[in-house]
Structure formats: structure tokens, C-alpha cells
Write a structure and sequence with these properties.
Helices cover about 20% and strands about 25% of the residues. It is α/β, with parallel strands linked by helices.
């Protein structure tokens, strides 16, 4: 299963310099926030596969004009080709904004999802905008990760966590891909191609 993950900056390779067939063969696109409506609509049209997205901290405009043909997965689990995907968008709160949350607010969102997690018997991919705490985040409130994401991964052991928010051009040594227990964590800044394989023995 091939999954294209995108976040924060429109990829010139898949947009400005797009060539026919470049998005062929994808089974799913995951958008981790702070991307334009036009870009997401372009991707879903050209790829012809489901595009799942969460809100970034700058995505209030989607409340009035959500990207057509795309599926918002904030606070829900959506299954594509047998893969269960859970979405929790938004960033740590550093000013007043609809898609910014304190640690306590994000923890309550996770708690409200437990009935759905139980009914789906877990999930395979955690999609967020912000990273988990101490896993590719910064100490500043604007780019701090959430502790509750770590606890969620420890308990449910998804195959992947995919996030954005921390741009790879912010500085040196920002990890693109790392590991936390049984979970591979990917920073989807701009774009990243995931070759997902069902791990039946997990």
C-alpha cells in the first residue's frame, strides 16, 4: 500500500512541477495540516484515491470552504483498504485560535475517542498536525508536542504516527523519521512517500 503524506508546504514536485502520472499508484493521501484548499483538491483529483486530512493551526478557513473531495478525519477513525486511520489535528496553544489546544484539552479529545478506538480494535496510523512531546518537537509553546500522543502510542501501538507543524528547514537535526516503541514516526513536511505493509504479527 502506497501512501503520500504531505504537510505545511505545497510540494513543487507534486504541484508546480507536476507531470501526468506522478501520483499514479497511490492508495491514500494523508494531509497533516496547513496546506491550501486548492492544493489538496489538486492532489485528490490527480491521484484518484482517498485524501484524509486533519486541521493545522492555521486552517480556520476550511470551516467555511473545506477542500472538496477530501475527508476530514479530526476526532474520528476512518478505514481505507483495511488500514484504520485516526486523526487529531491542531497544535499546542500559544494564542487564541480554534485549532490550538492546551495539553489538557488535547487529552480530553483523546479520551472522547476511546469508545471508537475500542470498537475499531485500535488503529494503524495516527495522523496529527503537531508532533508528540520530545519526539521531533521544540520547547517553545508554538512548536511543542503533546504528551498525550506518547501515551496513545504506548497503549495502542500503531504502525505509524504522521505529523507536520515542525518544518524541516527550521534548523539542523530535525528528524524526518524516528522510532518510538512499536511506532514509526514520520514528519511529513512538504511530502513523504510511505510504503505501508500490513504487519499481521504485531
Amino acid at each position: 500500500m502506497k501512501i503520500l503524506a504531505v504537510a505545511d508546504e505545497e510540494s513543487r514536485y507534486y504541484y508546480e512541477y507536476y507531470q501526468p502520472g506522478r501520483l499514479k499508484g497511490l492508495d491514500m493521501i494523508i494531509a497533516c495540516g496547513d496546506l491550501s484548499r486548492a492544493y489538496l483538491e489538486f492532489l485528490v483529483t490527480m491521484a484518484g484515491c482517498p485524501l484524509l486530512y486533519v486541521h493545522g493551526n492555521h486552517d480556520e478557513r476550511f470551516d467555511k470552504e473545506p477542500p472538496e473531495g477530501c475527508v476530514c478525519i479530526d476526532d474520528k477513525i476512518v478505514t481505507v483498504c483495511g488500514v484504520r486511520v485516526l486523526g487529531l489535528g491542531g497544535s499546542h496553544k500559544y494564542k487564541k485560535s480554534k485549532y490550538m489546544y492546551t495539553e489538557a484539552q488535547m487529552r480530553r479529545r483523546v479520551l472522547r475517542l476511546w469508545p471508537s478506538i475500542a470498537s475499531h480494535r485500535g488503529f494503524d496510523i495516527l495522523v496529527t498536525h503537531a508532533p508528540a512531546r520530545h519526539l521531533g518537537d521544540f520547547d517553545s509553546y508554538s512548536h511543542r508536542g503533546f504528551e498525550c500522543f506518547r501515551a496513545l502510542m504506548e497503549r495502542c501501538k500503531p504502525a505509524y504516527m504522521v505529523h507536520g507543524h515542525v518544518h524541516l528547514n527550521y534548523g539542523m537535526n530535525i528528524p524526518r523519521r524516528t522510532r518510538f516503541g512499536d511506532t514509526t514516526i514520520i514528519n511529513a513536511y512538504e511530502h513523504y512517500l510511505i510504503d505501508y505493509e500490513e504487519e499481521g504479527s504485531r
